Automatic annotation (TrEMBL), chains A, B:
Gene3D superfamilies: Medium-chain alcohol dehydrogenases, catalytic domain, NAD(P)-binding Rossmann-like Domain
SMART domains: PKS_ER
The keyword Cell cycle is annotated on this UniProt entry: no
Domain Enoyl reductase (ER), chain residue ranges per copy: 63-341
Classification lineage: Eukaryota, Viridiplantae, Streptophyta, Embryophyta, Tracheophyta
Protein name according to UniProt: NADP-dependent alkenal double bond reductase P1
Keywords in alphabetical order: Oxidoreductase
One Pfam family cited in the UniProt record for this chain: ADH_zinc_N
Catalytic activity, EC: 1.-.-.-
Enzyme class: oxidoreductase
Molecular function via GO: oxidoreductase activity, acting on the CH-CH group of donors, NAD or NADP as acceptor
Keyword presence, Oxidoreductase: yes
Length: 346, 346
């Protein structure tokens, strides 16, 4: 049997803000049976995680390209690999059977043909939507957990500022911080998001950064005694303002710098005098660094979910053709919470 | 008995590069006897430590002013407090006697009249010059020790880059790193300093940053496999280039940012993408944070000195009138090693 497989490619490298016109939907015919002796696995993709860091792989050059294996540059015209949950259609590998649910590094496509090493793990149906494995119980949650607990070593009562606080990672950081007993303020890019943070996610306060003219004063207003912990998702001016408002021995956990991904003119120039005199620590991280605490993270987070102590915010789009707009939307603040593209029902 | 006491003041706040004309030598008559019941101590100053961080106290506004007690702003026309070694002339305090050698926070002056809390400790003559207490066995050494060992957690064989490497702290960091078995490259601002680093202090390599046009490429040349540890004394472009050349899990210890003290236009904009993807830690510190390891630092450093494993580089000027030029010279790269002004013989 043969099917038409739609997949998404970049037409060329993307050097600044991504636009839908930079992408193309391609089609190919693929057979759903494997040649004898093949060890490949054919997967029908169900849920695709849409993540901003991919923009760095779409550039012709980025400091990130040589840093780690999964940050290698993408090739225009070629399928784009990403975190995906799918169902096995055909397997040439004894470890996987038809109808297994699997999560792995597959492609922005309806079907992916992969080797065993691309499959991270098999999944079972459970009481929550499977997409939680892409977000709150996956790398978004692990980023929040590792970046907040492991890097910042937060203590009850400390003041925590989260940027892009309604985003896939930020909203979880803020909720973890509240559960620990911190005072938490988030910023986001619309009044609707601010309301979500304050009224549904339990943030102590929140503001729309687009309505502020002097971020330094803004943060002074929300943190008159200073910030102990800044969880940075955006870089740029917000990072500068946060550093200026840190307390002594403050910690900045740098998860991402989305404002700098598409405009190096926005690169932050934090005042290093503050860094010295206030003994600030600024530290970058990747979720993958915290696989050693995945068990703890997963157990605690599942407990919180089962106890109704964590709200899960997902933002879903439908169909492979929606991937470019879903991705581009990340840079325009369109998404609320974890962005997932749904390709098919389980 | 009365003496004429010369002391140095700033005429006004200094907002950019300091010049000798910003300072003034003032005189006052002081009595060398104390009124009955006074608990003061009159000290004849012998050696004055000349430190760049004072520039931040000379500004009308600096991020450092509110950070810690000893960074308070200086008042034009008033005596300038600084780390000094002196000899007690008259004491109204039972803990101190005439002729005691003491180190403390006194003034840029020939004589200081102080209270007990300004005296850090009594000193004994020992086999090394007393000025070592201001440099290698004092805050310069402790800065090097705390900032290198405690912040960077260096391991044998790691690559270490030190800026302002012939300065009071940098030269000690480089020597500690060599004693640990690291590969060490320093930068400085003259060929003479470069020769000192390579031929007398045992650095593996060194370069004159003034002769380099592209610091990023320069560091790539000296560290083809990247930098594990950057000990930053200067900030600015050098910090940017170092971050671009760090290895994964690199550590940046920020001791000072002298290029940014007098020109905020030079503020560093390190690429935060590097910070994230290479999981770099950038951390500021003050020597005072490491008083808890002073015993270890002092014992180890004395051992190294007694074994002839550490070279001590001091740069001395003579007389109270030389203080302004000694201080201004720090910002022009005039000093080699620890800058001390000698006021009188022991």
């Amino acid at each position: 049997m043969e099917v038409t497989n739609k997949y998404i490619v970049i037409k060329h490298h993307i050097e600044d803000s991504p636009k839908e016109s930079h992408f193309e939907v391609k089609t190919e015919a693929i057979g759903l049976s494997l040649k004898p002796g093949s060890d490949e696995v054919i997967i029908k993709n169900l849920y695709i995680s849409i993540d901003p860091y991919l923009i760095n792989r779409m550039k012709s050059y980025s400091a990130s390209h040589n840093a780690i294996s999964f940050a290698t540059p993408l090739t225009p015209g070629q399928a784009i690999d990403a975190l995906v949950i799918g169902r096995v259609v055909t397997s040439g590998n004894a470890k996987f059977e038809k109808d297994d649910l699997v999560m792995g590094v597959f492609t922005w496509a309806e079907y992916s043909v992969v080797k065993e090493q691309s499959i991270i793990k098999k999944l079972e149906s459970f009481e929550f939507p499977l997409t939680y494995h892409l977000g709150i119980l996956g790398f978004s949650g692990l980023s929040a957990y590792g970046g907040f607990f492991e890097i910042c070593k937060p203590r009850k009562g400390e003041t925590v500022f989260v940027s892009a606080a309604s985003g896939s990672v930020g909203n979880i950081v803020g909720q973890y911080a509240k559960l620990l007993g911190c005072y938490v303020v988030g910023c986001a890019g619309s009044q609707k998001k601010v309301t979500l943070l304050k009224e549904e996610l339990g943030f102590d306060d929140a503001f729309n950064y687009k309505e502020e003219t002097d971020l330094n004063s803004t943060l002074k207003r929300y943190f008159p005694d200073g910030i102990d912990i800044y969880f940075d998702n955006v870089g740029g001016e917000m990072l500068e303002a946060a550093v200026a408002n840190m307390k002594a021995f403050g910690r900045v956990s740098v998860c991402g710098v989305i404002s700098e991904y598409t405009d190096i003119g926005k690169r932050a120039s934090p005042n290093m005098m503050d860094v010295v005199y206030k003994r600030i620590t600024i530290r970058g991280f990747l979720a993958a660094d915290y696989m050693n605490v995945f068990g703890d993270f997963s157990a605690k987070t599942l407990d919180y979910l089962r106890n109704g102590q964590l709200r899960v915010i997902e933002d879903r789009s439908l169909g492979v053709e929606s991937i470019p707009s879903a991705f581009v939307g990340l840079f325009n603040g369109d998404n609320v919470g974890k962005k997932v593209v749904v390709l098919a029902d389980e």
